[in-house]
Amino acid sequence: MKNLEKIFKGLANRRRLAIIKLLAKNKQLSVTDIAKQIKLSFKATSKHLSVLRQLDIVDRNQVGLTAYYRFSHTLPHPVNMLVSTISNSRE
């Protein structure tokens, strides 16, 4: 139950929700691409991605100097369903 509580707290941020929606549409994006699309600085975007990574919601793939993010392949079923719902929301 505590794990779900941490996940809900981590998702309770409009910027992180926007990141989830972007990744659902694009499969994998760089920090720079995400930052441009959500109109946030590189540093702030990296912090939001770090929170999502600590919760095992996203994975990072480093290619040279560029970090790419995508959904984790090990998302627990309830979290996967929640991410799917967020991705399909119209807001």
Automatic annotation (TrEMBL):
<keyword id="KW-0238">DNA-binding</keyword>
<dbReference type="GO" id="GO:0003677">
    <property type="term" value="F:DNA binding"/>
</dbReference>
<dbReference type="GO" id="GO:0003700">
    <property type="term" value="F:DNA-binding transcription factor activity"/>
</dbReference>
<dbReference type="Pfam" id="PF01022">
    <property type="entry name" value="HTH_5"/>
</dbReference>
<keyword id="KW-0805">Transcription regulation</keyword>
<dbReference type="InterPro" id="IPR051011">
    <property type="entry name" value="Metal_resp_trans_reg"/>
</dbReference>
<dbReference type="InterPro" id="IPR036390">
    <property type="entry name" value="WH_DNA-bd_sf"/>
</dbReference>
<dbReference type="InterPro" id="IPR036388">
    <property type="entry name" value="WH-like_DNA-bd_sf"/>
</dbReference>
<feature type="domain" description="HTH arsR-type">
    <location>
        <begin position="1"/>
        <end position="91"/>
    </location>
</feature>
<protein>
    <recommendedName>
        <fullName>HTH arsR-type domain-containing protein</fullName>
    </recommendedName>
</protein>
<dbReference type="InterPro" id="IPR001845">
    <property type="entry name" value="HTH_ArsR_DNA-bd_dom"/>
</dbReference>
<dbReference type="InterPro" id="IPR011991">
    <property type="entry name" value="ArsR-like_HTH"/>
</dbReference>
<keyword id="KW-0804">Transcription</keyword>
